[in-house]
Amino acid sequence: MIKYIKILKIACILLFIIFSSCGEDRTAQNISLPSTPIISAHSRWAVVKIDYLRIRAKPAADSEMLSSTGMGAVVRIISQTENKELLGQEQDYWYQIEDQGVRGWVFGAHLDFFNSRSEAQNHAKELQ
After folding, report:
1. 75: which of 37, 46, 96, 112 lies 20 to 30 Å off by Cα?
2. How many domains does the chain have?
3. Is the whole-model pTM more than 0.70?
4. Candidate ranges 18-27, 28-37, 89-98; pick with highest mean pLDDT
Protein backbone atom coordinates (compact mmCIF):
# COMPACT_ATOMS: atom_id res chain seq x y z
CA MET A 1 0.00 0.00 0.00
CA ILE A 2 2.87 2.37 0.83
CA LYS A 3 4.40 1.73 -2.63
CA TYR A 4 1.17 2.79 -4.32
CA ILE A 5 1.01 6.00 -2.28
CA LYS A 6 4.60 6.88 -3.30
CA ILE A 7 3.82 6.15 -6.94
CA LEU A 8 0.66 8.27 -6.71
CA LYS A 9 2.63 11.18 -5.20
CA ILE A 10 5.23 10.98 -7.98
CA ALA A 11 2.49 10.85 -10.63
CA CYS A 12 0.81 13.92 -9.13
CA ILE A 13 4.08 15.85 -9.13
CA LEU A 14 4.74 14.92 -12.75
CA LEU A 15 1.21 15.92 -13.80
CA PHE A 16 1.59 19.25 -11.98
CA ILE A 17 4.87 19.94 -13.79
CA ILE A 18 3.41 19.02 -17.18
CA PHE A 19 0.24 21.07 -16.79
CA SER A 20 1.91 24.07 -15.17
CA SER A 21 4.32 24.40 -18.09
CA CYS A 22 1.58 24.28 -20.74
CA GLY A 23 0.46 27.44 -22.47
CA GLU A 24 3.50 29.58 -21.71
CA ASP A 25 5.28 31.02 -24.72
CA ARG A 26 8.95 30.66 -23.99
CA THR A 27 11.58 31.72 -26.47
CA ALA A 28 14.95 30.10 -26.62
CA GLN A 29 17.78 32.03 -25.06
CA ASN A 30 21.30 32.24 -26.41
CA ILE A 31 23.69 30.18 -24.36
CA SER A 32 27.41 30.72 -24.68
CA LEU A 33 29.69 27.88 -23.71
CA PRO A 34 33.39 28.23 -22.90
CA SER A 35 35.82 26.99 -25.51
CA THR A 36 37.36 23.57 -24.94
CA PRO A 37 41.07 23.23 -25.68
CA ILE A 38 41.94 20.20 -27.81
CA ILE A 39 45.42 18.92 -28.50
CA SER A 40 44.24 17.68 -31.88
CA ALA A 41 41.20 16.07 -33.40
CA HIS A 42 43.12 12.94 -34.36
CA SER A 43 45.54 10.56 -32.70
CA ARG A 44 49.09 11.68 -32.17
CA TRP A 45 52.00 9.31 -32.07
CA ALA A 46 55.55 9.53 -30.82
CA VAL A 47 58.78 7.58 -31.06
CA VAL A 48 61.09 7.20 -28.06
CA LYS A 49 64.51 8.67 -28.89
CA ILE A 50 66.53 7.52 -25.85
CA ASP A 51 67.72 4.06 -24.81
CA TYR A 52 65.73 3.84 -21.56
CA LEU A 53 62.55 5.81 -20.83
CA ARG A 54 60.64 5.44 -17.57
CA ILE A 55 56.85 5.42 -17.78
CA ARG A 56 55.52 7.02 -14.60
CA ALA A 57 52.17 6.93 -12.76
CA LYS A 58 51.95 10.75 -12.60
CA PRO A 59 53.58 13.61 -14.54
CA ALA A 60 56.48 14.06 -12.13
CA ALA A 61 60.09 12.86 -12.07
CA ASP A 62 59.67 11.43 -8.57
CA SER A 63 56.44 9.57 -9.37
CA GLU A 64 56.17 5.79 -9.19
CA MET A 65 57.64 4.00 -12.22
CA LEU A 66 55.04 1.76 -13.92
CA SER A 67 57.17 0.41 -16.73
CA SER A 68 59.89 1.41 -19.15
CA THR A 69 60.44 1.44 -22.88
CA GLY A 70 63.36 2.08 -25.17
CA MET A 71 64.63 3.69 -28.32
CA GLY A 72 62.41 3.21 -31.34
CA ALA A 73 59.25 2.33 -29.39
CA VAL A 74 56.12 3.74 -31.03
CA VAL A 75 53.69 5.12 -28.43
CA ARG A 76 50.24 6.71 -28.68
CA ILE A 77 49.84 10.15 -27.11
CA ILE A 78 46.71 10.38 -24.95
CA SER A 79 47.13 13.83 -23.38
CA GLN A 80 49.65 16.37 -22.17
CA THR A 81 50.09 18.59 -19.15
CA GLU A 82 48.93 22.18 -19.38
CA ASN A 83 52.31 23.73 -18.61
CA LYS A 84 55.90 22.94 -19.47
CA GLU A 85 58.24 21.80 -16.72
CA LEU A 86 61.99 22.10 -16.35
CA LEU A 87 63.64 18.70 -15.90
CA GLY A 88 67.42 18.81 -15.78
CA GLN A 89 68.31 21.32 -18.48
CA GLU A 90 65.31 20.59 -20.70
CA GLN A 91 61.91 22.24 -20.62
CA ASP A 92 58.94 20.36 -22.05
CA TYR A 93 55.46 18.99 -21.34
CA TRP A 94 54.70 15.67 -19.71
CA TYR A 95 52.73 13.38 -22.03
CA GLN A 96 50.37 10.61 -21.05
CA ILE A 97 51.10 7.72 -23.39
CA GLU A 98 50.00 4.19 -24.07
CA ASP A 99 52.69 1.61 -24.75
CA GLN A 100 51.80 -2.07 -25.09
CA GLY A 101 48.73 -1.71 -22.86
CA VAL A 102 50.49 0.40 -20.20
CA ARG A 103 49.24 3.95 -19.69
CA GLY A 104 51.53 6.40 -17.96
CA TRP A 105 53.45 9.65 -18.19
CA VAL A 106 56.77 10.44 -19.92
CA PHE A 107 58.75 13.64 -20.36
CA GLY A 108 58.34 15.09 -23.86
CA ALA A 109 62.01 15.92 -24.45
CA HIS A 110 62.59 12.19 -24.99
CA LEU A 111 60.06 11.85 -27.82
CA ASP A 112 59.79 12.65 -31.54
CA PHE A 113 56.18 13.44 -32.54
CA PHE A 114 54.16 12.38 -35.59
CA ASN A 115 50.58 12.79 -36.84
CA SER A 116 50.15 9.18 -37.93
CA ARG A 117 51.19 5.78 -36.69
CA SER A 118 52.74 4.90 -40.05
CA GLU A 119 54.99 8.00 -39.97
CA ALA A 120 56.06 7.07 -36.44
CA GLN A 121 56.77 3.47 -37.44
CA ASN A 122 58.88 4.61 -40.41
CA HIS A 123 60.91 6.86 -38.14
CA ALA A 124 61.30 4.07 -35.57
CA LYS A 125 62.86 1.82 -38.24
CA GLU A 126 65.50 4.50 -38.86
CA LEU A 127 66.43 4.54 -35.15
CA GLN A 128 66.80 0.78 -34.77
Report:
1. 37
2. 1
3. no
4. 89-98
The domain in which residue 48 lies consists of: 44-127
DSSP string, the chain: -HHHHHHHHHHHHHHHHHHHTTT---------------S-SS-EEEEE-SS-EEEESSSSTTSPEEEEE-TT-EEEEEEE-SS-EEETTEEE-EEEEEETTEEEEEEGGGEEEESSHHHHHHHHHHH-
CATH code for the domain in which residue 72 is found: 2.30.30.40
Amino acid 40: pLDDT: 47
Between CA 80 and CA 62 the distance in angstroms is: 18
